[in-house]
């Protein structure tokens, strides 16, 4: 790297006109010790007029040979002299005409930062070149000031200012957890840290003290994912204490939108009065009626009645008594002994009575207690789970929100599953069995849309099953038929979520894989499928009271890999495949007449079609038309008796499962806003691997789905 300025260096004893040139090395007191080249009195030009940096030294370099100004005076007593201002050459990037441009290759190392950190961390572990010891409780942590200062504004202020710690070898750090400090120092040297339930409560305060914003954000993100009605109030208070505004906002929203569950938690009963008031004052509080708010307040008071009885008037001011029904206001609120014994409480009840009894005076009585709470927008969301993609089983999951008309990716399952049975129980999505591309599965996973997480702590089924029908009836999850890799199954078992246990029930009279299942009128229906030889049109109905299956009227068409759903109190069966071709036809079963009747056909043939009822709309999703695997969706219009196209999924799926969950708009936002880009499915499906059977699914609110392909 050549430089534009000439550093003319004078040595002791040199005379005017002597030019420092050839070579020198950096020293603390400047560029000294250079050999000099004398300019003769008649010299008009400097032949070597530049200085070039080479490693740690300087050497002269032939430049353009323009006249140079000579030093004309001595500087006694100085060991070096910089006369740059008296001798410059011009733009270093612009060489004279005729001089070839030097070749250049900029290089930035990707390995350098990591390797440098690894070496520095190794030095720390061996206590080499460490210049500070942090004393945290009984723990001593050796470190380098420059590393700590680079990562933490707290340490940078400590070590670069006039504080006493800047001169101390040992620095005592108080009010911080030893293990948390170790983890944060490790992060400074490795850029890695693991946030978990066991350390987040000490890690976040320590990160706040050291002003490690990145770790604060990581802790808050972890806590967001752990939000639950049983802990959201504790997380809310924790966020407030440590000024985590975003976490506090999310925890507030979660508390408001899940108030009906939160009010039954132990944390709610332990709330101080001011925090309780903050919650019940919100217009966003998600309650069916103001009666729930009153009942929650009275339960809170009675939890510690001696201490909280004096606080009742203050808290009751924030219950919107004028919004109560007259019967509840008079019969429950007005007659409560705690209310009757307090004058301020009685005044609030009288105010509410006047509001209800004098409608003509209501415009003059408006206030915070008469303002209705904002209703929470709820809607059903459709989830498409697993299946086949690019010739292999997949674990990815996507969901469709009719309110936004968007398909987006959510958290993937821990296992790849084709032919998986899917259903919804207690607002949780269950994925049962399937095939992972090499073996048949009996494992089960459960998805919580509020946390966007899958858990595998569900008991497995008694036998491996793919192409299994799954439905919810009477609080139990039923797994019906399928195949285990050896034969088709007629085995049926049900899962009790309270016991985390599967139990066999009566088997079907016919073996069925690719069977469609539906729940209607307290009965479980098994519709069509294949017995391993040919498609079926037979239908069986399970009575849980008798633990018996009964044969009912058959469909008009043999169908395997069909879609099935309960819609307007009838069972719809659409698409599928008969002995020869994929089907677009549809029919429906009326349980009052025990008869099947035809329905207008879909616009496309669809075998392995998913059928779902979402927000009152019957939707046929995907499938195979005999040539192409489809990602389009059709919606049935019962008034016009037609099917119309309604967009499509992002990706084609085969042998996947579908479930429908009712969610608030807030829950949908919390679960999906930050994760869709990280969980995007990359390959676009064009060709599907053949030879796999479908899975049929059913949700507790009437959703039935099948996936698969023809054989």
From TrEMBL:
PROSITE patterns, A to Z: BTB (PS50097)
Annotated ranges, domain BTB: 130-197
Biological process annotations from GO: Golgi to endosome transport; proteasome-mediated ubiquitin-dependent protein catabolic process; protein K33-linked ubiquitination
Alphabetical keyword list: Kelch repeat, Repeat, Ubl conjugation pathway
One GO molecular-function entry: type II interferon binding
Keyword rRNA processing: no
Name the record gives this protein: Kelch-like protein 20
Organism: Alligator mississippiensis (American alligator)
Gene name for this UniProt entry: KLHL20
């Amino acid at each position: 790297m050549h430089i534009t300025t000439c550093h003319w260096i004078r040595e002791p004893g040199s005379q005017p006109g002597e030019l420092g040139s050839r070579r020198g090395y950096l020293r603390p007191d400047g560029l000294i010790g250079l050999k000099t080249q004398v300019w003769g009195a008649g010299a008009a030009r400097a032949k070597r007029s530049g200085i070039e940096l080479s490693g740690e030294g300087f050497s002269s370099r032939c430049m353009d040979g323009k006249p140079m100004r000579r030093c004309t005076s001595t500087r006694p007593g100085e060991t070096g002299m910089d006369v740059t201002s008296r001798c410059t050459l011009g733009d270093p990037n612009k060489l004279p005409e005729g001089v070839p441009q030097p070749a250049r290759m900029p290089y930035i190392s990707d390995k350098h930062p990591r390797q440098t950190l690894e070496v520095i961390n190794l030095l720390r572990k061996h206590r080499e070149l460490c210049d500070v010891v942090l004393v945290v409780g009984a723990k001593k942590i050796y470190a380098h000031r420059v590393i700590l200062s680079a990562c933490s504004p707290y340490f940078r202020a400590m070590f670069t200012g006039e504080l006493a710690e800047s001169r101390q070898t040992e620095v005592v750090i108080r009010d911080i957890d030893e293990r948390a400090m170790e983890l944060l120092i490790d992060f400074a040297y490795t850029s890695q840290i693991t946030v978990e339930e066991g350390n987040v409560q000490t890690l976040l305060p320590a990160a706040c003290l050291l002003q490690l914003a990145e770790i604060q954000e990581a802790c808050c993100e972890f806590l967001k994912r752990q939000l639950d009605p049983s802990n959201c109030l504790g997380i809310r208070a924790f966020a407030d204490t440590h000024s985590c505004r975003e976490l506090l906002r999310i925890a507030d929203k979660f508390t408001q939108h899940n108030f009906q569950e939160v009010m039954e938690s132990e944390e709610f009963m332990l709330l101080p009065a001011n925090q309780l008031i903050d919650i019940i004052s919100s217009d966003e509080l998600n309650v069916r009626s103001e009666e729930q708010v009153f009942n929650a307040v009275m339960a809170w008071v009675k939890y510690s009645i001696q201490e909280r009885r004096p606080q009742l008037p203050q808290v009751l001011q924030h219950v919107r008594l004028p919004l109560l029904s007259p019967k509840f206001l008079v019969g429950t609120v007005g007659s409560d002994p705690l209310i009757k014994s307090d004058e301020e409480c009685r005044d609030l009840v009288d105010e509410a009575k006047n509001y209800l009894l004098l409608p003509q005076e209501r415009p003059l009585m408006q206030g915070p207690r008469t303002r209705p709470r904002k209703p929470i927008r709820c809607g059903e969301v459709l989830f498409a789970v697993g299946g086949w993609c690019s010739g292999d089983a997949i674990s990815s999951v996507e969901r469709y929100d009719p309110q936004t008309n968007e398909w987006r990716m959510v958290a993937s399952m821990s296992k790849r599953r084709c032919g998986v049975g899917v259903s919804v129980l207690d607002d949780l999505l269950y994925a049962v069995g399937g095939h992972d591309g090499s073996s048949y599965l009996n494992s089960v996973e459960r998805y919580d849309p509020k946390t966007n997480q899958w858990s595998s702590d569900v008991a497995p089924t008694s036998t491996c099953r793919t192409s299994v029908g799954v439905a919810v009836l009477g609080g139990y999850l039923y797994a019906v038929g399928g195949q285990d890799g050896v034969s088709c199954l007629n085995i049926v078992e049900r899962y009790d979520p309270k016991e985390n246990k599967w139990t066999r029930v009566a088997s079907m009279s016919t073996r069925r894989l690719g069977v469609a299942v539906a729940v209607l009128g307290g009965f479980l229906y098994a519709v069509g499928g294949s017995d391993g030889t040919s498609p079926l049109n037979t239908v069986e109905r399970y009575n849980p009271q008798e633990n018996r299956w009964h044969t009912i009227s058959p469909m008009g068409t043999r169908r395997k890999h069909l879609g099935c759903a309960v819609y307007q109190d009838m069972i719809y069966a659409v698409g599928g495949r008969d002995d020869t071709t994929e089907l677009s036809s549809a029919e429906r079963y009326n349980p009052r007449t025990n008869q099947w009747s035809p329905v207008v056909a879909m616009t496309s043939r669809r075998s392995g079609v998913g059928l779902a009822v979402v927000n009152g709309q019957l939707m046929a999703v995907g499938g195979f038309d005999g040539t192409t695997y489809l990602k389009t969706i059709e919606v049935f219009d019962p008034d016009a008796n037609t099917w119309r196209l309604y967009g499509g999924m992002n990706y084609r799926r085969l042998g996947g499962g579908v479930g429908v969950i009712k969610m608030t708009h807030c829950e949908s936002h919390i679960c999906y806003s930050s994760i869709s880009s990280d969980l995007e499915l990359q390959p676009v499906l064009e060709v599907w691997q053949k030879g796999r059977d479908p899975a049929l699914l059913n949700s507790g609110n009437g959703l039935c789905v099948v996936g698969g392909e023809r054989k």
